[in-house]
């Protein structure tokens, strides 16, 4: 059986570049959507409103809020038939228990003919899922309430730009000979400028090659990139054993977020820092860049903090989207609020810590190339982008690049 690293290599072998949207919830194949059994009955249309009101009181569908109570059918001759969902059916050892007493009384009062039906257990996450669900029983579908541009597709020019920035991230991730780390690149999509870039810095005594030489750069990409020195250093590791590849990626911080707690490094090899992942480091670089470009700038309300300490941080730091138009400090009058509106490119799918840090940074879109089956927070293990309790959401994409790219860069 293939292990996870073999799967990674297989997924990138002989493929054309493509951008895949990672939805907020894992989609179910139509025939694999989990279902539950319910009690239903055919009713007279004149009794529908009364029965629905009574059932909402005695048997509310707490765990099936997406399922509608009434199903309309056209039977022979075009006659309309109404079926009513009475309650969930409790199963014990494969056998369906009897209906609750209150439901039985209602069935007897209206002389209903009951039957057992199946409904989908979870709400649809896409219109395609919803269409399949309604074939069993009517349900509701609510598209995401937030709107993130870029989900519906990319133009050819936008796609090439995404591929270029992702290649830049992979260049950085493979810039240390014999090892692969994670790399992060923050980009202003409106100007196609690299705002900041960084690699993992979890090993305190790591080689300077782990540091990004162009951190804080805001030159136009891709003209500012020079990877010719990398080409002379790199050797093909994909032809070697999977064990060798596993050793090479052993220092990717997001793949091993708990390594600092379980690994004892020798005194000569330094210590494994729990927080210095590429995404965290690039956020620091971006913040340092803003402080350098706007040394005299104060966030809204900062002057009044001493006078009114009751102001919340959100009111002291609030900035409108219209204020965030460009990172060109020569024409910008206000300092950007964190990374609002920016995109970030990561070689590897981030862990939960990094993904949550990017929520706080208000990034618009996250692109990663390689999935993280150990601790991925954006599709592989968790889907943080679908957590409704968060006050910010970003769109997530996987950028699938040809296997030859990694072969040439590692």
From TrEMBL:
It holds the Pfam family dCMP_cyt_deam_1. Residues 164-368 form the CMP/dCMP-type deaminase domain. Keywords: tRNA processing. The keyword Magnesium does not apply. Transmembrane segments: none annotated. SUPFAM superfamilies: Cytidine deaminase-like. The keyword Oxidoreductase does not apply. InterPro entries: CMP_dCMP_dom (IPR002125), Cytidine_deaminase-like (IPR016193). One of its GO terms (molecular function) is metal ion binding. One of its GO terms (biological process) is tRNA wobble adenosine to inosine editing. PANTHER family: CYTOSINE DEAMINASE FAMILY MEMBER, INACTIVE TRNA-SPECIFIC ADENOSINE DEAMINASE-LIKE PROTEIN 3-RELATED. Belongs to the cytidine and deoxycytidylate deaminase family. ADAT3 subfamily. This is tRNA-specific adenosine deaminase TAD3 isoform X2.
């Amino acid at each position: 059986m293939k292990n996870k690293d073999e799967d990674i290599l297989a997924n990138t072998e002989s493929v054309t570049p493509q951008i895949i949207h990672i939805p907020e919830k894992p989609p179910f194949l139509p025939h694999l959507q989990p279902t539950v059994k319910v009690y239903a009955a055919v009713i007279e249309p004149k009794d529908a409103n009364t029965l629905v009101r009574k059932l909402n009181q005695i048997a509310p569908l707490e765990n099936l809020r997406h399922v509608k109570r009434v199903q309309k059918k056209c039977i022979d001759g075009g006659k309309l038939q109404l079926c009513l969902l009475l309650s969930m059916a409790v199963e014990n050892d494969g056998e369906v228990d009897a209906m609750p007493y209150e439901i039985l009384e209602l069935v007897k009062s209206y002389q209903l003919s009951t039957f057992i039906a199946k409904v989908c257990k979870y709400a649809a996450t896409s219109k395609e899922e919803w269409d399949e669900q309604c074939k069993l029983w009517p349900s509701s579908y609510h598209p995401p309430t937030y709107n993130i541009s870029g989900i519906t597709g990319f133009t050819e020019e936008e796609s090439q730009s995404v591929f270029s920035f992702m290649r830049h991230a992979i260049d950085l991730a493979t810039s240390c000979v014999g090892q692969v780390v994670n790399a992060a690149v923050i980009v202003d999509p409106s100007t196609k400028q690299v705002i900041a870039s960084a690699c993992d810095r979890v090993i305190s005594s790591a080689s300077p090659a782990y540091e990004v030489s162009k951190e804080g750069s805001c030159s136009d990409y891709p003209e500012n990139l020079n990877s010719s020195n990398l080409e002379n250093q790199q050797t093909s590791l994909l032809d070697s054993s999977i064990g060798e590849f596993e050793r090479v990626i052993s220092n990717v911080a997001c793949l091993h977020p708990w390594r600092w707690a379980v690994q004892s490094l020798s005194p000569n090899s330094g210590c494994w820092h729990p927080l210095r992942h590429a995404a965290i480091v690039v956020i620091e670089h971006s913040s340092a860049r803003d402080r350098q470009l706007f040394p005299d700038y104060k966030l809204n309300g900062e002057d009044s903090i001493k006078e009114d300490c009751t102001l919340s941080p959100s009111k002291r730091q609030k900035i409108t989207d219209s204020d965030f138009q460009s990172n060109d400090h020569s024409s910008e009058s206000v300092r950007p609020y964190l990374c609002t509106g920016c995109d970030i490119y990561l070689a590897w799918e981030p862990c939960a810590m990094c993904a949550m840090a990017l929520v706080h940074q208000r990034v618009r879109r996250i692109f990663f190339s390689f999935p993280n089956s150990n601790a991925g927070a954006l599709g592989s293990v968790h889907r943080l982008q679908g957590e409704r309790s968060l006050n910010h959401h970003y769109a997530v994409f996987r950028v699938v690049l040809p296997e030859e790219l990694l072969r040439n860069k590692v």
